[in-house]
Amino acid sequence: MAEKLLEIKNLQTHFKSDRGVVKAVDDVTITVNKGETVGVVGESGCGKSVTSLSVMRLLKDTPGKIVGGTIEFEGKDLAHLSEKEMRLIRGNDIAMIFQEPMTSLNPVYKIGRQIEEAVMLHLKYDKKQAREHAIKMLKLVGIPRAEEIVDEFPYQLSGGMRQRVMIAMAMACNPKLLIADEPTTALDVTIQAQILDLMRNLSKERGTSIMMITHDLGVVAEMCDRVVVMYAGKVVEEADVFTIFENPKHPYTEGLLNSVPKLGQKIKRLESIPGNVPTPGNMPQGCKFAPRCGKVMDICTKQDPELKMIDKDHTCRCWLYQESGVLEV
Amino acid sequence: MAELKVNEAIQQPVSQPVNIKKNTPITEFWRKFKRQKLALGAGVFVVLLFILGIIGPFIAPYGAAEFDYDHILEGPSAQHWAGTDAYGRDIFSRIIIGTRISLFISILSVLLGAVGGTVLGLISGYYGKWIDNLIMRFCDILFAFPGILLAIGIIAILGPGLGNVVIAISIFSVPMFARIVRSSTLAVKSTVYVEATRSIGAKPRRIIWKHIFPGTVSAIIVNFTMRLGTAILTAASLSFLGLGAQPPSPEWGAMLSGGRDYLNTAPHVTFFPGLAIFLTVLAFNLFGDGLRDALDPKIKD
Amino acid sequence: MLRYFLNRLIGIIPILFFVSIFIFLFVHMIPGDPARLVAGQDASLADVKAVERELGLDKPLTTQYVHFVTNIIQGDLGVSLKTKRPVFDEIAKRFMPTFWLTVWSMGWAVIFGLLIGVISATKRNKWQDYVGMFGAVSGISLPSFWLGLMLIQLFSVNLGWLPTGGLDSWKSYILPSITLGAGVAAVIARFSRSSLMDVLKEDYIRTGRAKGLKENKVVWGHALKNSMIPVVTMTGLQFGFLLGGSIVIETVFSWPGLGRLLIDSVAFRDYPVIQAEMLLFALEFILINLIVDLLYGVLNPQIRYD
């Protein structure tokens, strides 16, 4: 049995606005084991990024707030840690890289300084050691001329290079968990593959777990051991990566897979999921996916299904796999 | 690597819920504006000021030039709420009557400046090239002088007096409006609908007034309001320096200037006119802030 | 850097040229005959003609302009109509008091403005923010001459702590510089708040937090430097406001500076002095803008110097 590193249980993160409360993350449970890479997949606005920010407790500048559930990490509940305790974990035990390498580095400070900062803080290195460590990290992520780059400003680097710097920064304190929020979305396709390779190798070498937030099923196939599919703030399906690709159960997961071209398969046209993601203020009753679902039944529009185990290590939130006669209302 | 593209156009960040009911710009503006209680209060105050500006002379308990040599430099009392000045005139009444002067001067001067600046800005932004260069260099020169210095210079040429204050303030308001309108014009000009209008052969003047000008209106309104406060301050400063309204006019700055000699014995003579200026300018600024926040599409909830 | 500096320097030449024409024409825009003004109301026609020749007013405008610029470059600003002394000396005598008053005002306006701005931005929508921003909007709404008079009333007349006016010791600087700086402090506070709030939304701030940095370090270390770039520009422009404000404040505090000289000159119609002062103020303003541009380059590594 794999050892659990991070266990998000029944997490609820709500956003308050003057038009009402938006349940951005609604009862989400995700487990990440040691050394494992878990993909969290879904369309924009499904709550996957908010989930990752909740784990990091970086919701400060948003109107969002964790209102329920626990985030267990090595015996501690991150959802209820003080800001001070949380700071010791951020950048140290859990590091994060973001979607936008172009804007995620501070434009007015040199690359080196931005890496050294975390190293000096968490590893208690002095300035000189930290600088050496920064150069070592830059080399590790495959940046040529690391000794020079360390004294350059972010604007002097390309997007791919900056994402490498971000990875170097994130890995500098040897974190146990790396949260990557769409790390390759903003990059060119060729660079994407390089960055993913780099991340996979680093995680293997160092035994780092990765929580990979993405909407790109290609990334999932390449990187992940297990996949969590989210829709409208809820987990709709979870299974290992092979099961998800070979035997998806939830109509939404199927829809996602059908909208991706498969190699060596002749199809006339790609299917797309009809309709739009429901807007937070406009959630349908019952199953959130029902209005777009091709297999919709009567019960779907009335009651939300639960996340049920349908096979070993395979859960799904769909009435198709649950006794639909249990409407008790 | 395959990309998942499901309705990318509908990327609604979770933190910004979309509006459920379709709102017109005006109701949307009102929804945002009424939330700002301070700006709302300031707006009410501004309206009251305008009413006072119109009916002031009829409701003031005393006349602006009603001398009473038995009661000179008296502090606030039941008869004279803000006391009396060196000639025994009721300060409260003079402030009420003076409201009209301050409002009239500021509105007239900013209006002149805004009209001039808007026309120059529209021309500059729409036609570009040498005419743009010429207008913008002209603005640079006016900008090279601090506003009040320019006003003093203009008054040095034209001589003191309220009319010349209006001219001075309107001249130094021109470049600000010109620049704002120019940059809005440039932004609006490049939008698709102006391109489309031009492609069907509309005349420049028609494009400017029918399509570009409306796009700059909100920027003009906000700056107009903000500028009113500045104009009142500048006019009062000039009157205080003896370059604007002359005694015995109940202009606030001039009243304040007249009270300087009695600062030791009768501070209320300077205090109340100054307070009137302060509250009026504050109201315009708060109101302008509120307008800006409600009209600025960049500011979300 | 040097090229950027030279480019900026060359860039102000056309503005200087137009400003000098503007100021040159200034005297010609005055209603009435300048020669008559210099000679005095009772002077005979022959005297007026003599003055006209002396001032070169009988020559064509272009010649007069060349003459005007050559004189300025040589430091000859003419003679004051009021004191009959060289304008250059009159101005030189009063330059330093105004200069130091502006520096004092700016100094504390920057300190307090930034402090209020940063606190308001970090305590957004809390009471500190409301108090700070209401104070700031009040600051820009205060008539400076009224504030000055009220401060005199309180600290000089009632409490007797500080002088009512004039320039005798360092104490004389306190009230005028507070009065003059209040408006600028308010503008800086408002501007730095909104600038800092914009920067705090940036991705790299989140990166800083994700590193586990303390909030103070994120704000003062990462956010402030970025948010200062527009603030520096705006603060520089406020120097013009200070120069203008000093005209009013110096009158309130009987300050022996340029501003009061200007007001006295306007009252006396002492055109050579007014002309010289307008020129000086415009020059200072242009110079400050240049310095601000250069500072902008220093703060922002991304700016290209060509």
Automatic annotation (TrEMBL), chain A:
One of its GO terms (molecular function) is ATP binding. It is found in: Cell membrane. It comes from the Bacteria. Keywords: ATP-binding, Cell membrane, Membrane, Nucleotide-binding, Transport. Belongs to the ABC transporter superfamily. PANTHER family: DIPEPTIDE TRANSPORT ATP-BINDING PROTEIN DPPD, OLIGOPEPTIDE TRANSPORT ATP-BINDING PROTEIN APPD. Pfam families: ABC_tran (PF00005), oligo_HPY (PF08352). SMART domains: AAA (SM00382). This is Dipeptide/oligopeptide/nickel ABC transporter ATP-binding protein. It is a peripheral membrane protein. Coiled coil: none annotated. Residues 6-257 form the ABC transporter domain. The keyword Transport applies. PROSITE patterns: ABC_TRANSPORTER_1, ABC_TRANSPORTER_2. It comes from Neobacillus kokaensis.
UniProtKB/TrEMBL annotation, chain B:
PROSITE patterns: ABC_TM1 (PS50928). It is found in: Cell membrane. Residues 99-288 form the ABC transmembrane type-1 domain. Its main location: membrane. It holds the Pfam family OppC_N. The chain crosses the membrane at residues 38-60, 101-126, 138-159, 165-181, 212-245, 265-288. Keywords: Cell membrane, Membrane, Transmembrane, Transmembrane helix, Transport. It is a multi-pass membrane protein. Part of the ABC transporter complex GsiABCD involved in glutathione import. Probably responsible for the translocation of the substrate across the membrane. PANTHER family: GLUTATHIONE TRANSPORT SYSTEM PERMEASE PROTEIN GSID (PTHR43386:SF3), OLIGOPEPTIDE TRANSPORT SYSTEM PERMEASE PROTEIN APPC (PTHR43386). Belongs to the binding-protein-dependent transport system permease family. This is Glutathione transport system permease protein GsiD.
UniProtKB/TrEMBL annotation, chain C:
It holds the Pfam family BPD_transp_1. The keyword Ion transport applies. Keywords: Cell membrane, Ion transport, Membrane, Nickel, Nickel transport, Transmembrane, Transmembrane helix, Transport. It is found in: Cell membrane. It is a multi-pass membrane protein. Residues 95-292 form the ABC transmembrane type-1 domain. The complex is composed of two ATP-binding proteins (NikD and NikE), two transmembrane proteins (NikB and NikC) and a solute-binding protein (NikA). Part of the ABC transporter complex GsiABCD involved in glutathione import. Probably responsible for the translocation of the substrate across the membrane. This is Glutathione transport system permease protein GsiC. It comes from Neobacillus kokaensis.
